[in-house]
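S1.2 Input.
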Amino acid sequence: MNCNIKVNKIDHEGLKSFVGLSKSEYDSTNAVTDYDQMVWKHLDTAHGPSTAINLNCKDVTVGRVLLQPRKVRVGEKEVNIAFATDSLVLLEFRRPISNFFSIMKEIKHIDDFSLVLHTSNENTEAIYHNVLTFKCPISLSGYGVPVNLRVIFKKVIGFDSAIFEIINLPYRWLISSVCFIAKYLSALVITSDPPDENVLDHHIENHKFSDDLQIIRSSAFLKWRFNGSPHWKANVLHIYSKHNYVGYLAIREVELDGLKFTIIMDFSVNADLSWFAVLFIRLSVIKIAINNRSDAVFTLLNHRADMAKKFTGIPFFKVPDRLLPHKTPFFVHINDESIFSIDTLKKLHITLADLDYF
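S1.3 Output.
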């Protein structure tokens, strides 16, 4: 059957078709079948509606990928990029495989974005790598720390023991004690009280890590990403040094595979914060996790980005890929090679705020 590609900015009618296509593949627990969630994700984004690349057969949409818009600051310029997300081809149209390839290859013809990033899972990684031959300059790594040693040991080792609880109590006490000392030495306060929007935007604009490529944040983005979603709301905590605003972090509680995690979704902190100040921020997240009865703290980061190093040090450690559901490589379409190269992209700072995992 002959199919053709149609590209357009998503609207409410297109989104209804999107959700209908999703429901033919996924059950009702999947967020892509929730119309309100998809309105948030693809219509009400901080940078405008997503671009839909649709595979149509006899005027019926049988496949798609959506390009969710973002911006990256390159020098003094703001550059339009996108994340490719929610790709799907109906089962009966997955052969010939050229149907899927035609959707992917259409991306290079879309001039709206200088760069498009794709994630993959264990099923599609080989296709991106070996068949589509996309370059992969970035791969995110998991970082975290156990909070409930008894539960974590039971999960990893496979059996429970009262001795784990004996270890667990002094372990948590040690974290709380070191957090108290670090707070005293750093003189920081972490609170849910936000600053004026202008103060927040000024912080984000003026505290960049010079060697990183950073996806632009703003008060509008934080509101959209962490307050607007019907399913993925998160708490944004703000960090002050006396009366000066020095950063924020966004966290949320997620249950996965029988464990409860405190997830670090996003953060931005002054580049010149002392080692003790950064240690206090990390420990404060762990203390929040203890108070929320989480089993572990977790985040995903590009370890090459300088900003990411604020959350990859003690007491956080790298989580082996074999313990994660799948790897998180990023494959790229570079549509404007005068702006981006494979080498410069290696230091792109990406957080879970940029992904649709939670």
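S1.4 Remarks. The CA atoms of residues 194 and 238 lie 6 Å apart.
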